[in-house]
Amino acid sequence: MLSIGNLAKSTGVKVPTIRFYEQIGLLPAPDRTDSDRRVYDQVAVRRLAFIRHARELGFALDAIRTLLGLADHPERDCAEANALALEQLATVDAKIAQLQALRGELKQMVDGGCQGAAAECRVIETLADHGRCAAPHAAPARHALA
Amino acid sequence: MLSIGNLAKSTGVKVPTIRFYEQIGLLPAPDRTDSDRRVYDQVAVRRLAFIRHARELGFALDAIRTLLGLADHPERDCAEANALALEQLATVDAKIAQLQALRGELKQMVDGGCQGAAAECRVIETLADHGRCAAPHAAPARHALA
DNA sequence: CTGCATCCTCTAGCGACTAGACGATCAAGC
DNA sequence: GCTTGATCGTCTAGTCGCTAGAGGATGCAG
Q: B2: number of CA atoms within 13 Å, CB side?
């Protein structure tokens, strides 16, 4: 039996995040002590570890909800889990490709060098004039970059 | 002289996004017609193209604000622009490395195959048991994935 | 018994938009 | 001149996955 703080420690998920997961229904509301504190068992630890691992792999919370549903009902068909994983793989692949294209242009920009006044700054020039780009690049997907 | 819709068409930036950029001070408030419609000139087109290009390269709006400031004052030192570009390159590199590690584990998971019941689903098993991971992986940076 | 860590709930904020409601205005066709 | 539909205006609220902070109650160690 663990307090929320100890659950946090043993899973590496922060306390407010655990409460947030409970709020959105990813984690079931746990039992409480007389003084209203949450008390967790080992089942909760496993469930939260599952969530954390899936998040590390980049699954969206909605996808995780589905995966948890499947994990909870082992008699169901796992085709959906497979589909989600494949989709996630495709997303990651696309993002890597995107970022590599980006990296190429950034590198070129930085390598152009730039000393002294901004008037002759290669970085600023490059940004101002998309026509100079070696290759066309689309906008990265939303949230693909910090 | 362009309406906001035509500015949007000629830069590829959506109308609400243009208004948003004006609201946060990235674009100056343009002149208006008698009926309060925004009117843009070629300077606005160039400025918005600059912003769009920088966004495509993954620069944050705050960084873009700085870059625009430098572009507006060509007599200033461009060291800051260079630093921002280098920082951005490092960020992209880190993200690529992160995603490739992720991809590896996802691939392994998907290749494990998975037919029939969720009870024997390799995807779900893998998620449930982090200990099986070939390599350790940290959580991706916030917003690194959709 | 006195601190201080931890817990509780609640609201608001982040980045970079996007969506929708609601009303005014414009341009084109009849 | 009139109608119709696209475009424009403002405003608020929603997205995602948390994170931060206020303000108060409880638990535990010295």
A: 18
Distance, CA of A2 to chain centre? 27
pLDDT, residue A113, reads 64
Contacts by residues B11-15 (CB-CB < 8 Å, ≥ 24 positions apart): B11/B45, B11/B48, B11/B49, B11/B52, B12/B52, B13/B48, B13/B51, B13/B52
Phi and psi dihedrals of B143, rounded to 5?
A: 70, 15
DSSP structure string for A38-55: EEB-HHHHHHHHHHHHHH
Residue B45 · residue B34 · CB < 8 Å: no
* pTM > 0.85: no
Query: Tokens at residue A87, please?
Result: 């989709």
Interface of B with A in 87-126 (CB under 8 A): 88-89, 91-93, 95-96, 99-100, 102-103, 105-107, 109-110, 114-121, 123-124
